[in-house]
Design brief:
245 residues, mainly alpha, globular, 10 helices, single chain
Length: 245
């Protein structure tokens, strides 16, 4: 899974995908802080607060929409599958992430347990940084051991789900039909995850076929790590501003 050095060769496809990653980081840097949290669009927020009863399709749609527009989820998934080539391995890691994400999403909302969304989202930014460092082999070089990547994926999945649960609690969903609606929302999240992952895998498969993948893989993970630090910085800044405001 960690990057190994190979010969340096260039290819337009690899450079193009790297430019896309860089453009994404620039977009993150210029976006408002609210865009980085597990936010729900204002229209969706009003809809969630006003409706009641069992509405499976709308909640499934909202869940899918959240996943495919979530910077943090997509960056983490990109880091997870960056050096995974077999579909079997990809399935294992994505399943662990989905298990963690689903568990804390449901339990968090049903129990009403929440903490600052800013702090949770800062941890999620940290998960992006962690996975990029793992891909770069940093832990092996720095500490002489390799953390269990499957356990780390599950643990960070728990934080990702808890972050969304914290936001949902803030919007006070009607208790009428709460459980089936939450299940539908979670199903939508997983559908959105599959759609997003499919797009990432298509792009990664194309990039891996170019001769420049080995050279640009290092820079690509540095870009992902930088985006993770940006997410952490925005969330921590938001936490301290709201705390002192």
């Amino acid at each position: 899974m960690r990057m190994v050095a190979t010969k340096r060769l260039g290819a337009p496809g690899g450079r193009l995908l790297l430019l896309v990653l860089l453009a994404g980081v620039v977009a993150l840097a210029g976006a408002p802080a609210d865009a980085f949290a597990h936010g729900v669009a204002s229209g969706d927020k009003g809809y969630i607060q006003e409706i009641s009863g069992v509405l499976l399709v709308p909640f499934a749609y909202l869940g899918a929409k959240h996943m495919v527009t979530g910077y943090d989820h997509l960056l983490f998934l990109l880091g997870v599958i960056f050096f995974l080539y077999r579909l079997k391995d990809i399935g294992v890691y994505v399943s662990l992430f989905a298990l963690g994400h689903s568990t804390t999403l449901l339990l968090g909302v049903l129990t009403g347990v929440s903490v600052s969304a800013y702090l949770i989202d800062a941890v999620i930014g940290l998960s992006v940084v962690y996975k990029a460092l793992d891909n770069l082999g940093a832990f092996q070089r720095w500490f002489g051991f390799q953390p269990n990547t499957k356990v780390a994926t599950l643990i960070f999945g728990l934080f990702h789900g808890f972050g969304l649960a914290t936001k949902i609690i803030e919007y006070q969903i009607s208790p009428d039909g709460l459980i089936p609606n939450l299940i539908a929302f979670n199903v939508g999240v997983e559908i959105g995850q599959l759609l997003a992952l499919s797009a990432i895998l298509i792009a990664m498969s194309y990039w891996r076929r170019t001769k420049s993948f080995a050279r640009h893989a290092y820079t690509g993970n540095v870009v992902v790590m930088s985006a993770g630090f940006l997410l952490m910085g925005y969330q921590l800044a938001g936490y301290f501003v709201t705390r002192n405001g």
